[in-house]
Amino acid sequence: MKCRRCRAKAVIKIERHHSAFCKACFNEHILKQVERAVKKDGMFDRDDPVLVAVSGGKDSLALWDVLLNLGHRATGLHVALGIGGYSDASREKTERFASARGAKLIVHHLRESLGVGVPEIAEKSSRPPCSACGTIKRYSFNQIARQYGFSVLATGHNLDDEAARLLGNVLHWQEEYLDKQFAVLQAARDPVNGRGGLVKKVKPLYRLAEREMAAYAVMNRIDYIVEECPNAKGAKILVYKEALNRLEEEAPGTKQNFYLSILKRWIPRLKPDSGVEENWQSCRQCGQPTSTNAGAGCR
Ligand code: AMP
Ligand code: FES
Questions:
Q1: Most buried residue among 59, 115, 172, 215 by CB atoms closer than 10 A?
Q2: Residue nearest to atom 14 of ligand 1 (CA)
Q3: Could you tell me the pTM of the whole model?
């Protein structure tokens, strides 16, 4: 197997693009794909400071690495969720990466800011831990981005994450979540009082598969947390990912076609104003966005 670009020995095959790459050309391919998404989808400009949400996992650390390699002013944000040893290990990975790259990292400790971690929040709100965790993460990302004056926040969601989430939303016909599937979610002011609001959110890896990001991280010796969150056991999203991987094996490109086609053709027909998050208001106490009249932090 030869590299499509330079004819050297290839180290990775990408079936859906009918291509194979050596390490140097694969790195170039990943950088180009991210740069293309950033530019073509209007995510941010070359000089815009970007806040990158880094969990300690392969996708977000690889994204941070790629953005730094492309010359972007990318600061990391890690939310320490207070899920025992798993959270400590995740935070350490982000801190080590930041010091190795000489990059700025903001660590936000939930136990310091709210006095509790995800397990206690889930218990108090009687919600499954992953659902409470998702809400608190979105809340923290927005709060810290606004506090430090960032106008754009990037996450490491990849093609597999988005396709699996879309499959779940379509199977259960959760129309209200389709808006969040876009690679760019524009900044929005509070629909009622025009104050505060949501910072712009972007997913620069939306065209790249999980397998490609894992390969990038390994090839570039990025030390990431391999362990899954203890609360992820039995999560439906993993079943959807498995099902899509099976389809992808039979017909390479299925995942990408499914996600990109629905994104481009179907959602805009259903929701002509899509690309802006809906159904939210500002919390009466802290001003942060919320779907009820009190934000996740105040509840
Ligand atoms: P997940 O919600 O775990 O699928 O992660 C999706 C994306 O959210 C990751 O790629 C990161 O960009 C971001 N993220 C998840 N957990 C954290 C965290 N604890 N701190 C900062 N960013 C995170
Ligand atoms: Fe949030 Fe697992 S990372 S519950």
A1: 59
A2: 55
A3: 0.92
Q: Is 140 in the pocket of ligand 2 (CB under 6 A)?
A: no
Is 93's C-beta closer than 6 angstroms to any atom of ligand 1? no
Asked if residue 229 has its Cβ within 6 Å of ligand 2, the reply is yes
The answer to whether 45 touches 235, Cβ cutoff 8 Å, is no
Q: Is residue 105 a contact partner of residue 75, using CB atoms and an 8 Å limit? A: yes
| Strand pairing class (281-282; 289-290) | antiparallel
**Length of the chain as a residue count:** 299
Strand order in the sheet with 74-80: 105-109, 74-80, 50-53, 152-154, 200-202, 184-185
Q: Give me ligand 1 centre to Cα 134, in Å.
A: 9
140 lines ligand 1 (CB under 6 A): no
Q: 79: Cβ below 6 Å to ligand 2?
A: no
Query: For residues 160-193, b (16+ Cβ closer than 10 Å) or e, as one string?
Result: bbbbbbbbebeeeeeeeebbebbbbbeebeeeee
Token pair, residue 296, equals 């996740």
Q: What is the pLDDT of residues 243-277, one digit of tens each?
A: 999 999 999 999 999 999 988 887 666 665 656 66
Tell me which ligand sits closest to the C-alpha of residue 75: 1
Among 56, 220, 224, 243, residue whose Cα is nearest residue 160: 243
Residue 164 sits at φ, ψ, to 5 deg, of: -65, -40
